[in-house]
Amino acid sequence: MSQIENSTTSAAADVGSLYEKHKKIYVRSVSGLFSNWRWGFVLLTQALFYGLCWVDWNGRQAVLFHLVERKFYIFGMVFWPQDVFYLALLLIISAYALFLFTAVAGRLFCGYACPQTVYTEIFLRIESWVEGDRPARQKLDRAPLDARKVRLKTTKHGLWLLLSLWTGFTLVGYFTPVRELTASLASLDFGPWEYFWIFFYGGFTYMQAGFLREQVCKYMCPYARFQGVMFDPDTLIITYDPERGEPRGTRKKGADPRSLGKGDCVDCGICVQVCPTGIDIRDGLQYECIGCAACIDACDAVMDKMSYPRGLIRYSTENALAKHYTAREMIAHVMRPRVLLYSSILALITLATIWGLSVRVPLKVDVIRDRATLAREADDGRIENVYTLRIMNTEEVVRRYSLGVDGLPGAEIVGERIVEVGGATTESVLVSVRVPPDAGPKGGNPIYFDIKAQNHDKVAVREKASFMLP
């Protein structure tokens, strides 16, 4: 029995060894060119996210995806469920842009604009502000629980929670008018789904940026897994130059590495300490690398202190390192057929989308024939069919539309032929169409409704319908 237990314990230990135990990463603060770029994107994306929902346009929220009204307002444009085609185009443009950026320079989106990266940077900045830089945070976590530790941890997590809930609140503010949402804040009089999404999105922000961090990039993000098939030897990536850096070793400041038989790398490990995913870029490109370039800033700072040239870690390509390309040659190889093809397709789709939006007719009409009475004889002897016209005015101005019909000899609309529809609203109109009994063969006959805006000839729609003759 003991042998069985021992073998089971040994097997469990072997299985457990297949998985690396998670170690908390204490990211060291870094400054430099790429850090400034990264924080520039953090400020830009968050200014847009937190601020855009408060911008007014034509007396309403400039960007609002109003689920109750089933309308999407984007500045001067109003989109309806029937405009889902434009959403498909937007997704295609986004996909091709991602392919293009990845083929040119790897995971640029991940390193500079991905929400996971952005909020992790913000949470890390709060953590550093409250608990101190890397050594102070490590010391605090090792220290026994006391009043100071409780105060610092409570302050940090309180700020994280406030930011997370504000983020969830802002997200919901794009689907429920944010001013209505704010008016309900004092009494917490939100709807069920608003409560759900505020806490759901806020909770995930708190969990992923505060605790999971690099684990999202390493284990949860699918982009990290398929990025390898989008790279090639001419893709710009963050690289360590082993010819220049090896062999590594410590030395005095300003010492000539060649006279010591060493490379430029002083083996300080700072490039690892500043990496948000905890990898060593000197081991080569790894799928965990998000392309944030923090290691470049850190290494350049060390090279400056040692009076060595910058660029031991730099943006380069596999071919450029192996074949010693100049900067001009490297850029020339970056602009390869694959990149040009992606760029051309992206440009064509983008231009086609812009053209489609510019010529979009701000009028939509659905024709629904009354199925309760297929056809009937009117008092004047003509045959009558009844239709419901659902007229959607997608502009934010009141329009008057004239109604007409043709397709059968003598076809005529009986009753009101002018309809007024408010801005960005839908009006249902009951229309009777009459034709002479001998206007066509028995059964269904095609007719066409013409709906035109008065004083605006280009705003017109022609819709096909079927007229039943007994």
General description of the model:
The chain has 470 residues and is an alpha+beta fold. The chain has 17 helices and 16 strands. Among the domains are: 232-324, no CATH class; 363-469, Sandwich (Immunoglobulin-like), CATH 2.60.40. The protein has helices spanning 2-16, 33-52, 84-105, 108-112, 115-131, 134-142, 147-172, 178-183, 192-212, 214-220, 222-226, 242-245, 270-273, 294-306, 318-323, 327-334, 337-358; strands at 56-57, 60-61, 63-66, 71-74, 77-79, 237-240, 313-316, 363-369, 376-377, 383-393, 399-406, 412-414, 418-421, 425-435, 443-453, 456-469. The strands form five sheets. Strands 8, 9, 10, 12 and 14 form a five-stranded antiparallel β-sheet that branches. A four-stranded antiparallel β-sheet has the order 13-11-15-16, with no helix packed on it. It starts with a helix and ends with a strand.
